[in-house]
Amino acid sequence: MTIVAKTGKGSLILALTAVLASVPAHAADPAKQACIGDAKRLCAPEMRTWSRSRVRACLIMHIEQTSPTCHDFMVKARAQALSGHKPDPSAQ
Prior knowledge:
Blueprint: H1 9-22, H2 30-42, H3 44-48, H4 52-61, H5 68-83
């Protein structure tokens, strides 16, 4: 567990780096890996909430501005959200 004082953007990035570094590459969420840069760029306020659903919703709202790899994951997430199913992070 990482505890970070809320002192600014640097602390959030440090905490995310520590969390991502502690997860083995084979266990990491492929959608998270594909979209982390886009989420930082497009959805910084949602990233600060630590809410995956808010970040996902933000990325879907900005889907045309996401990178091609993230775009593919968000298209699937949007389709699953519209159909009422939870997104499968391992789906590619």
